[in-house]
Amino acid sequence: MKSLRKIITRSILLTALIALVLVAINIVFTSNWMMTYSGSQPPKYSIADISDGLINTDGAYTLDASAAALMDQQYVWAMLINRDGQVIWNKNLPGDIPLHYTLTDVASFSRWYLNDYPVSVWEHPDGLLVLGDPKSTIWKYNITSTEDTISHVPGFIAGFLILNVLAALVLALFLGLWLYRKLKPLYNGITALPKKEPLQLPTGGVTGEVARILNETSVILSQQEKQLAHRDQTRTEWIAGVSHDIRTPLSMVMGYASELENNPSLPPAEQNQARIIRQQSQRIKSLISDLNLASKLEYHAQPMELAKVSPAALIRGVAVDFINNGLTAPYSLAVDVIEEANGPILLCDQALIRRALTNLIDNSIRHNPQGCNIRLSVTKSTNGLVIKVSDDGKGYPPELIENSGGLDESLLLGNHGLGLIIVRRIMKIHGGSVVFENLPQRGCAASLIFIS
């Protein structure tokens, strides 16, 4: 649920940010537009310079050079009206502009338009100077406001912007809550799928199609889970049944082979054959035991008897068992432990860990027929304990080392039988892991890593 809240919060913040950016863009765009289009018109304050440049010489009016240049740049026509309302001078005067004006006429056009021509006026010593622009080029409108209203314009603009921001935030919050309500059932459904819980999500609304697919997926996963559970149960029962059926005749074979091996009346060659039969039967019995244990470990059917044990005592016991069972040259077995390992610091199923160590030692012996030196050691790691079984033999195959991270059990089965698979599964149910590596000088090592 925290992930969903995080998504919704980010959506709200992103929507608000977009709204604020849009407001800022509108402000910049409006300001730029006003500056661009208002700036395209030359400032009309130069009308005073034009008026000063209109000179009366013995009743004849002329514009000096600077005033004429200003007028050509900014205006189309001009005229000078004397105090009697008569036009006494003009330049480029349109034909529809009268040559005589009353006081009322002057009052009506002095601020805005004369016959639809935008005009500007300025007092001249000899009358009123009128400068005109072409029709439909300048928009003029009379806006009247009180000083109190004008003084409140900055506050109004600020309030308008704040209102926009608040509206954007409210809109973002509303959209976020709406999205949250729509996505919450989907989120709950997705999180329930790994838990193998049945789903019945509502299939209406904008998320209805996704909800329907999740419901169908839940049904399919539930059916597959039942099928897998049934298959696994059947396989486990089959392995246990076959193992039980094989043990009885196998025990008889081993018994008769042992009697023949110890029968002094048989020739030595036949006694040796009986010994081989007994040894291979014993190997088959061990393989059956390994198969049963591997199956139980895979499906968590092996009961765990956890207890605090001394790692040092554990590996010494394993070493003593091998030595007492006749481990001789060209093999040797050494133990190396730290002082802390003498205390009961390892929580584990002692029988299973002994089995894992036994399998690793057997693996070193079986794959080094010319002999090797085997070492058992216990060391502390940053977050737990490491029990290592190493040897100076020929080492592990490269493909096993390359895939040790996400270990493919088919590699273990093909090269080392069930022994290493059982080691890996024992460490898995203990919450730890096993790492296989080849040593730089010679040989290999398998590290059982326990997380404390």
Automatic annotation (TrEMBL):
<dbReference type="InterPro" id="IPR036890">
    <property type="entry name" value="HATPase_C_sf"/>
</dbReference>
<keyword id="KW-1003">Cell membrane</keyword>
<keyword id="KW-0597">Phosphoprotein</keyword>
<dbReference type="InterPro" id="IPR050980">
    <property type="entry name" value="2C_sensor_his_kinase"/>
</dbReference>
<dbReference type="InterPro" id="IPR003594">
    <property type="entry name" value="HATPase_dom"/>
</dbReference>
<keyword id="KW-0812">Transmembrane</keyword>
<dbReference type="InterPro" id="IPR005467">
    <property type="entry name" value="His_kinase_dom"/>
</dbReference>
<dbReference type="GO" id="GO:0016301">
    <property type="term" value="F:kinase activity"/>
</dbReference>
<keyword id="KW-0902">Two-component regulatory system</keyword>
<dbReference type="Pfam" id="PF02518">
    <property type="entry name" value="HATPase_c"/>
</dbReference>
<feature type="domain" description="Histidine kinase">
    <location>
        <begin position="241"/>
        <end position="452"/>
    </location>
</feature>
<keyword id="KW-0418">Kinase</keyword>
<keyword id="KW-0843">Virulence</keyword>
<dbReference type="InterPro" id="IPR036097">
    <property type="entry name" value="HisK_dim/P_sf"/>
</dbReference>
<protein>
    <recommendedName>
        <fullName>histidine kinase</fullName>
        <ecNumber>2.7.13.3</ecNumber>
    </recommendedName>
</protein>
<feature type="transmembrane region" description="Helical">
    <location>
        <begin position="156"/>
        <end position="180"/>
    </location>
</feature>
<keyword id="KW-0808">Transferase</keyword>
<dbReference type="InterPro" id="IPR004358">
    <property type="entry name" value="Sig_transdc_His_kin-like_C"/>
</dbReference>
<dbReference type="InterPro" id="IPR003661">
    <property type="entry name" value="HisK_dim/P_dom"/>
</dbReference>
<dbReference type="Pfam" id="PF00512">
    <property type="entry name" value="HisKA"/>
</dbReference>
<keyword id="KW-0472">Membrane</keyword>
<keyword id="KW-1133">Transmembrane helix</keyword>
<feature type="transmembrane region" description="Helical">
    <location>
        <begin position="12"/>
        <end position="35"/>
    </location>
</feature>
